[in-house]
UniProtKB/TrEMBL annotation:
<protein>
    <submittedName>
        <fullName>Vancomycin resistance protein YoaR, contains peptidoglycan-binding and VanW domains</fullName>
    </submittedName>
</protein>
<dbReference type="InterPro" id="IPR022029">
    <property type="entry name" value="YoaR-like_PG-bd"/>
</dbReference>
<dbReference type="Pfam" id="PF04294">
    <property type="entry name" value="VanW"/>
</dbReference>
<dbReference type="Pfam" id="PF12229">
    <property type="entry name" value="PG_binding_4"/>
</dbReference>
<feature type="transmembrane region" description="Helical">
    <location>
        <begin position="51"/>
        <end position="75"/>
    </location>
</feature>
<keyword id="KW-0812">Transmembrane</keyword>
<dbReference type="InterPro" id="IPR007391">
    <property type="entry name" value="Vancomycin_resist_VanW"/>
</dbReference>
<keyword id="KW-0472">Membrane</keyword>
<feature type="domain" description="YoaR-like putative peptidoglycan binding">
    <location>
        <begin position="253"/>
        <end position="359"/>
    </location>
</feature>
<dbReference type="InterPro" id="IPR052913">
    <property type="entry name" value="Glycopeptide_resist_protein"/>
</dbReference>
<feature type="region of interest" description="Disordered">
    <location>
        <begin position="24"/>
        <end position="45"/>
    </location>
</feature>
<keyword id="KW-1133">Transmembrane helix</keyword>
Length: 607
């Protein structure tokens, strides 16, 4: 071992040991020596070698002491002298250290469970640690303490405090801080570019005034441990896309995009995309950070082009079911050929900034139907599980009857997958003249008036009852304001675009097929699936709170519709579902009908 003065080599990270020089006795008494050459001094090379050897022995002894000290310092899993929150964990096994730390936390429970005073902006609230998941992770803290490493000699004379590992539920804390923020903050205005016709309009970003969640979480953790109030400042948070970037996108993309049409060329021919269709399909979407990205919405483009794409595309057809001989029969689907959505959207976006050569060469690729025969077979649609019929007057020639039949045609053959929610409004879309609907009486503000689509409520009631008796989950429905004897009380539904809808969810493991049929005076809806219940029935409570109608005189004219009126009442109904011979569910439905006024088209004789 080579000594550097009284220090070990600088690269050695062992404890510094000071070596003190000592005198060594001779091995034998000195003898007289005859005159001759001078004898080497006592401190000559031989003597120095013995001294170095002795020094090495001393260092070895001291090193052995250091090793022993290190063994003592690191006895147990946690090095000696290590503490957390004043609890000495040094020299303990991990299991014992966990037990010790838990005991210390239990002793401090009153303090640790006390609410934390937090000021958000100008509002002060108190947050309970349990409500925001504020806690000390004991196992992680002990692991951190066990990872502490220091010089063995330091362990002999010193100590080290380890900070506890504090956890918090970021989601619950964020919700609590946002509630505390209240109206002090403001939402971020996301950048956007929207089209008014073919004119792009910029929407410039504005910053949010909000809580810096990571900084707030760190402050709450520290304040909780220290037992002191916490102040959370509201900070501005800007969207990633600046006002200048929005202007650049308008100038370089949005304006030239609608300056001229684009030609789409395929091996089946060409289609011209006019500026209006480009404006409808060019979307500028901002992500959560406010980063604005242009894209082509192919679904919107298809809607804007209408039948033009039919010249070059072959739309795939889903497999379906028809009822033949009292059993469902699979109708095979058909594959098609459509534009490669990813490639076409990318290539179209690339030519939009150009002022010339606005042509896209697009590829048509095979398009399989979403619902294949194999998938349809797996749905388990094999038997009729419910059916319901209502009657109407006027024959098929009346506008009201035509509306009922049109709705039935729109829905016939619809397949609802397991877990899927069916919406009648979403399925038919707005029921207008272009969709085959006609003017017929409908209830608006408590009286019958002519309106396009009148009568569709009867189909809605029929569909609602069919799904009700199939045991399917009711998601949304609203009974009529007045009671009509052609419908079952309470168990019926109206509809009105777009405010009132009828929705049900297929809460079974099997697919559901909606099958409709009509005659000159009836409409029938049947639900086909796999039967899972013994029965679904309705039990009624008595009518109560009966009210009588009043007479209302209306100005005569083509828009006046008279009505005989009817009583108002409240009533309860229970859907009772049985399976395996037992009642497994009783669902309560309640409704109050207003008394339908007796409308008379003419002057009041008593006026």
């Amino acid at each position: 071992m080579t000594l550097y003065g009284d220090r070990l080599p600088p690269a050695d990270d062992r404890p510094t040991v000071k070596v003190t020089a000592v005198s060594w006795p001779d091995d034998a008494p000195e003898r007289a020596v005859a005159p001759g050459p001078e004898r080497p001094a006592r401190g000559g090379p031989f003597r120095r070698g013995r001294l170095l050897l002795a020094g090495g022995i001393t260092a070895a002894v001291l090193a052995a002491g250091v090793v022993g000290a290190g063994a003592w310092a690191y006895a147990g899993d946690v090095p000696r002298g290590t503490s957390v929150l004043g609890a000495e964990l040094g020299g303990r096994s991990r299991t014992d250290a966990v037990r010790t730390l838990r005991a210390e936390l239990e002793r401090r429970s009153a303090t640790l469970n006390a609410p934390v005073a937090v000021t958000v902006g100008e509002r002060r609230v108190e947050l309970k640690p349990a409500d925001i998941g504020l806690a000390i992770d004991v196992e992680a803290t002990v692991a951190a303490a066990a990872a502490v490493r220091a010089h063995a000699v330091d362990r002999l004379v010193g100590s080290r405090a380890v900070d506890p590992v504090v956890t918090v539920d970021d989601t619950r804390l964020a919700a609590a801080l946002n509630r505390a923020k209240g109206s002090q903050g403001r939402e971020m205005t996301m950048p956007a570019i929207i089209f008014s016709g073919t004119t792009p309009k910029p929407v410039y970003p504005k910053p949010a005034l909000t809580v810096d969640q990571p900084a707030a979480a760190a402050a709450v953790k520290a304040g909780w441990l220290a037992g002191r109030p916490v102040t959370v400042q509201l900070v501005e948070k800007w969207p990633a896309t600046s006002e200048e970037e929005v202007d650049r996108l308008v100038t370089e993309l949005a304006k030239p995009a609608v300056a001229a049409p684009v030609t789409v060329s395929t091996d089946r021919g060409s289609v011209t995309v006019p500026p209006a269709a480009i404006a409808r399909s060019l979307r500028f979407s901002a992500d959560e950070a406010g980063r604005l990205t242009p894209r082509i919405d192919l679904k919107r483009l298809r809607a804007a082009l209408g039948d033009r794409l039919a010249k070059i595309e072959i739309e795939p057809q889903d497999a379906g079911l028809t009822i033949s001989g009292g059993k469902p029969k699979v109708v095979p689907g058909k594959a098609g050929r459509q534009l490669d959505a990813t490639a076409f959207g990318r290539d179209l976006l690339a030519v939009l900034p150009k002022t010339a050569d606005r042509t896209v060469t697009a590829q048509l690729k095979p398009a399989e139907p979403e619902l294949t025969e194999a998938k349809l077979t797996e749905l388990g649609i094999k038997e009729r599980v419910s059916t319901f019929t209502t009657r109407f007057t006027g024959g098929l020639s009346s506008p009201r009857s035509q509306n009922i039949v049109q709705a039935a045609k729109d829905v016939d053959g619809t397949i609802v997958a397991p877990g899927e929610t069916f919406s009648l409004n979403a399925h038919t879309g707005e029921r207008g003249y272009d969709q085959g609907y006609q003017d017929a009486p409908t209830i608006v503000n408590g009286k019958l008036v002519p309106g396009v689509g009148g009568g569709v409520s009867q189909f809605t009631t029929t569909l609602f009852n069919a799904t009700y008796y199939a045991g399917l989950e009711d998601v949304e429905h609203k009974p009529h304001s007045f009671y009509f004897s052609r419908y079952p009380a309470v168990i019926e539904s109206t509809i009105y675009w777009p405010e009132l809808d009828f929705k049900f969810r297929n809460n079974t493991e099997h697919g559901v097929l909606i099958d409709t049929a009509y005659t000159s005076n009836t409409i029938t809806v049947s639900i086909w699936s796999t039967k899972i219940y013994d029965s679904v029935k309705t039990e009624y409570g008595p009518r109560r709170d009966v009210t009588q109608p009043k007479t209302v005189y209306l100005k005569p004219g083509p828009d006046c519709i008279s009505a005989a009126g009817g009583e108002g009442f409240a009533q309860d109904a229970w859907r009772v579902i049985r399976k395996d011979g037992k009642v497994i569910k009783r669902e309560k439905f309640s409704w109050r009908y207003a008394a339908e006024p007796r409308f008379v088209c003419g002057p009041d004789p008593n006026a």
